[in-house]
Structures are given as structure tokens and as C-alpha cells.
């Protein structure tokens, strides 16, 4: 019986790991399998912020539950969570109007936020240029994470303190149901069995069910990011999101003025071409992470995005960042890109195969913020638990 579980989760990224976490919280016996020696996909290549404020009403509920889960785990085991807030900085009256409208929406949702004057922004965020900022909207409950260490620390916590079985180097090659059990086999013909299997990784989905994958509406986004050298005694708290973020994030789509403001934007700018919005976040070593850009291709043609960094995009982001914050140094020590999948026509991809095999992927840029809360509800749904409220 050692290889039999209530649930086998395929994919050790943030979405899969929190499916495992929430299944264990329900008292289920769980095994998490990961094709690589350790997670190294989008979960480790993202910006590292948990910002329910940027999500639409539906996903903000998941994001707020994620915040609760992150903070609960952090109180028991260090997984790199820092509660230092998120600010959106308006650079003009249109963006300020969107901030005022978003604050009204969040007041109705009972989600804490505070408008900051120009002077308060300049005082709170050193180096912020007074010729850029007009006002800000601050969300004190939100947190940052260190994405390259968080998932490893989370999995260590789940193994050591919760008893989760994790099998690394377990590339799945077959997933077949005999009615009672689903048999999951890897390239070495090793097998685990489960009452339910949940596939939370796009690569495993593509390998196991290529026809279903090909007929999906999944697309891939490529994001470029970079990291400066440490900034000495300079201290920049929290996630800093700027005017282009205000014009991009889903939360603002619900603002009454959003459509009109978007319609008046120039159509042929480099910012539009490369999907850039400027973000800042200081890492624990004192460096500042800058981002990011968005380029898209159908999931079946992700090679079209290339495997190189486009230095024109990086140079453009640095040039724009310098218009917002005067950092002590803009010397770059590291550049990278991340790839994540999302759906063209829905907020996440879900497909059930043979009743007991569930595919859940394509969470897009919502992964770090939304996975913990969404997985809680999804696990309850899959195992027909009583309705839970988020």
C-alpha cells in the first residue's frame, strides 16, 4: 500500500505544490511528483509578489485566501514571505482616477487600501522622482516572496512537518485509470497509484495528452526581468507598481474609466509592442529586481518566442525605470526570462479525463498570488467536500 494515495499531484510548481498542501489539509494521503530534480519553471522565474489588489473580484478572493495561507505557513516555517505592502504609483490624472476608482471597489470588498499623496509617496519611497509621481494607492496586507527559494522551502516544510511524499526526477509517461485506481508511471517504470490524479504542469499535460493539448486555447507568455547589483544602504520596501501596471492589471478593468482611458492610448508604442510595465522589488540581498515584458505565442508554437534575451527590451525597461526611481546603481548583475501558460478565453484551463484525472494549468501571471487560494477550493470540489467559503 506504500505506493497508493488519495491524490497524486503531477507538477512541483506553485500550483501543484499548493494542490498537495490543501489536499493534506483535508486529511488526504498525498504524493507530489516532479519531472525534474527540483522545480525550475515559471514558479522560480517570476517577479516574486503576492498582489490580490491587481486581480479581478473573483481572483482577488483566491488571492486573499492565498495571503492568509502564506502568512500562516510563514509563522511556522520561513518560506521567505515579507509583509511589506504594495503600492501603485500614478503618473498622471488618468492613472490617478483609476486608483481612486479601484480604492472604492476595494472598500466595497472590505480589502484595506490607502491613498497616498505625492508628498507621502516621495517620503515613503526613496529615490522616487517627483516629476513622475502624482499619487499612490497602498495595500498594506500584501507580501513579497523570493521565488527562487520559496518553492523549495515550502516543499521542505511540507515534507518535514506535514509528511508529504515528494518524488523528484519522476517524469510521468503514462496515466491510466482502471476504474478504481489511476496508475501513474515514470520513465523507469516506477509506479504510484491514486484515487485522483491532478496534473498541474503544462509540459506533463502536453506529453500525456497531446491531442487534448493541441485543441486547448493555451498560449505562452515570455517575460524578461533583470536584477541590479546590491544597492548598499538603500531600502525600498514592498512591491512598486507604476502607471503602466495600472493600465494593465485585471483589477483596473473593473474601474468605470478603464475602457475610455485604454482607448486613448497610442497603438504603436514600444511599451505596447513588448507588453512592458515597470515594476520594482528589492531582494533580500539589497539588489532591485526590475521588470517586466510580455510576448505571446500559441502553446504549441512556443519556440516562436525564441530562447534568447532581447537586449532592446531590457534597455528599454531600464531607460523607463530611470524616469521613475533614481536608484543608487542601475548596474545589472543578472538577466533572465520566464515562461508561463495562460488561456486565451478563460482564466484557467481545467479538463477532466476519465472522471479521476484532472488537468489544471494555464493560471498565467496569477500563479504566485492565486494558486494557494484557488487550489483550496479546487481540491474541495474534486473530492466532493462540503462547500467552502473564501
From TrEMBL:
<dbReference type="GO" id="GO:0016491">
    <property type="term" value="F:oxidoreductase activity"/>
</dbReference>
<feature type="domain" description="FAD dependent oxidoreductase">
    <location>
        <begin position="6"/>
        <end position="375"/>
    </location>
</feature>
<comment type="similarity">
    <text>Belongs to the DadA oxidoreductase family.</text>
</comment>
<dbReference type="GO" id="GO:0005737">
    <property type="term" value="C:cytoplasm"/>
</dbReference>
<dbReference type="Pfam" id="PF01266">
    <property type="entry name" value="DAO"/>
</dbReference>
<keyword id="KW-0560">Oxidoreductase</keyword>
<dbReference type="InterPro" id="IPR006076">
    <property type="entry name" value="FAD-dep_OxRdtase"/>
</dbReference>
<protein>
    <submittedName>
        <fullName>Oxidase</fullName>
    </submittedName>
</protein>
<keyword id="KW-0285">Flavoprotein</keyword>
<dbReference type="InterPro" id="IPR017741">
    <property type="entry name" value="FAD-dependent_OxRdtase_HpnW"/>
</dbReference>
<dbReference type="InterPro" id="IPR036188">
    <property type="entry name" value="FAD/NAD-bd_sf"/>
</dbReference>
Amino acid at each position: 500500500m506504500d505506493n497508493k494515495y488519495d491524490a497524486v499531484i503531477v507538477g512541483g510548481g506553485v500550483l501543484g505544490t499548493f494542490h498537495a498542501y490543501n489536499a493534506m489539509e483535508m486529511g488526504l494521503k498525498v504524493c507530489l511528483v516532479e519531472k525534474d530534480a527540483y522545480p525550475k519553471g515559471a514558479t522560480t522565474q517570476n517577479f516574486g509578489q503576492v498582489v490580490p489588489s491587481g486581480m479581478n473580484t473573483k481572483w482577488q478572493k483566491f488571492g486573499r485566501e492565498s495571503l492568509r495561507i502564506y502568512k500562516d505557513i510563514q509563522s511556522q516555517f520561513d518560506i521567505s514571505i515579507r509583509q511589506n505592502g504594495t503600492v501603485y504609483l500614478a503618473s498622471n490624472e488618468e492613472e490617478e482616477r483609476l486608483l481612486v476608482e479601484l480604492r472604492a471597489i476595494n472598500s466595497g470588498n472590505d480589502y484595506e487600501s490607502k491613498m497616498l499623496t505625492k508628498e507621502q509617496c516621495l517620503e515613503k519611497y526613496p529615490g522616487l522622482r517627483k516629476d513622475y509621481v502624482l499619487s499612490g494607492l497602498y495595500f498594506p496586507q500584501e507580501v513579497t516572496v523570493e521565488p527562487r527559494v520559496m518553492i523549495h522551502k515550502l516543499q521542505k516544510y511540507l515534507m518535514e512537518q506535514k509528511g508529504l511524499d515528494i518524488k523528484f526526477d519522476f517524469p510521468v509517461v503514462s496515466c491510466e485509470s482502471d476504474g478504481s485506481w489511476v496508475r501513474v508511471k515514470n520513465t523507469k517504470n516506477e509506479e504510484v497509484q491514486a484515487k485522483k490524479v491532478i496534473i498541474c504542469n503544462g509540459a506533463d499535460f502536453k506529453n500525456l495528452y497531446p491531442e487534448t493539448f493541441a485543441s486547448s486555447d493555451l498560449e505562452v507568455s515570455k517575460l524578461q526581468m533583470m536584477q541590479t547589483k546590491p544597492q548598499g544602504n538603500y531600502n525600498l520596501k514592498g512591491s512598486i507598481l507604476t502607471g503602466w501596471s495600472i493600465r494593465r492589471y485585471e483589477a483596473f478593468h473593473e474601474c468605470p474609466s478603464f475602457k475610455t482611458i485604454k482607448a486613448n492610448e497610442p497603438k504603436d508604442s514600444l511599451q505596447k509592442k513588448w507588453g512592458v510595465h515597470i515594476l520594482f522589488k528589492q531582494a533580500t540581498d539589497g539588489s532591485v529586481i526590475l521588470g517586466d515584458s510580455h510576448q505571446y505565442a500559441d502553446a504549441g508554437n512556443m519556440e516562436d518566442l525564441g530562447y534568447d534575451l532581447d537586449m532592446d527590451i531590457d534597455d528599454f525597461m531600464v531607460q523607463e525605470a530611470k524616469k521613475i526611481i533614481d536608484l543608487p546603481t542601475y548596474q545589472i548583475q543578472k538577466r533572465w526570462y520566464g515562461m508561463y501558460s495562460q488561456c486565451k478565453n478563460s482564466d484557467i484551463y481545467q479538463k477532466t479525463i476519465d472522471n479521476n484525472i484532472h488537468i489544471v494549468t494555464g493560471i498565467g501571471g496569477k500563479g504566485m498570488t492565486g494558486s494557494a487560494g484557488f487550489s483550496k477550493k479546487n481540491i474541495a470540489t474534486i473530492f466532493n467536500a462540503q462547500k467552502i467559503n473564501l
